[in-house]
UniProtKB/TrEMBL annotation:
Residues 59-140 form the D-glutamate N-acetyltransferase-like N-terminal domain. Gene3D superfamilies: NAD(P)-binding Rossmann-like Domain (3.40.50.720), P-loop containing nucleotide triphosphate hydrolases (3.40.50.300). This is EBNA-1 nuclear protein. Residues 146-339 form the D-glutamate N-acetyltransferase-like C-terminal domain.
Amino acid sequence: MSDVIDIAPSVAGVRIDLPQPYLLFLGDADDTTYLKTGQGLIDWAPGLCVAEYKCAGAAASLGLPVMRPREAYAAGARALVLAAASIGGAIRPGWIACLIEALEAGLDIVSGAHDRLADDPRLKRVAEAEGRRLIDVRSPPPGLPIATGRRRSGKRLLTVGTDCALGKKYTALALTGTFRTRGLAADFRATGQTGIMIAGSGIPIDAVVSDFVAGAAELLSPDADPAHWDVIEGQGSLFHPSYAGVSLGLLHGSQPDVLVLCHAHGRERIVGLTGYPLPSIGRAIEVTLDQARLTNPRVRCAGVSLNTAGLRAEEAEAAMAALSSEWGMPVADPMRPGAAFDRLVDACLA
């Protein structure tokens, strides 16, 4: 991973002008479970992360220097990023004073929340008075098209999953970086707020009206040179009762040539919905390929990206080897570079 991941060129209608680098705002989080956006930025664009700032009494930390907004501005930061997530994507009332302090210190604010920054009259008033920007990356571009289903030139890879929050973004980023290292033309296509903040472009698929999800995916991965790869960040899961609709629209609009199935080792049930068991690897591949064939009959699954977080190195190696033997395809954790991941990359490019 490099200091700044340069992985997404401008795509018409989806480029976002984000002020950088960032002061990461951790809100009132007491543990890192709610800091997914901040952790993603540190993992994939550490050179953009100047410091962290949080509400008084908050216990969570991402290990960055702690600075107040004026200190961070003096250190080079030009935007405060909401690195914390709240239930329902809300901007919590207890955060407002901290956000106002950032605006008054000269920082713009970048948010991936569902709530709109300018909907808070206090933030809007201070931003206007200070000449600062309130940037909501979870706002899709206007005029999104209805999908046509037309076959596009170029090659496309989509990461899909047995559940949410198990590594689809990290897998897509790792594959993009490795494709480029091998001398291939490849671009990461972000579909979620953290990916957009890392790449500087993308479409927040979960904020798109359902009729336009597939069209947004078509816009995100347009016609390209036949040898060019678009590596598209997956969202949700076809097996998740809450988010399967988003996943299906993204699948159809992406028209992937290659799928990589993402799965978390040891996870047996949908997170937050314990009454729903995860599908087997075989079932997940079968259903996903069947649905993907609507817009690309030649789609194939290259292998499995296995999230082995929490396992020791030897345990992870054993788990990947066992699953690879069981399903007859490469299985690798993209956060553990080595022979297994190289085999997965080879299968994607075969």
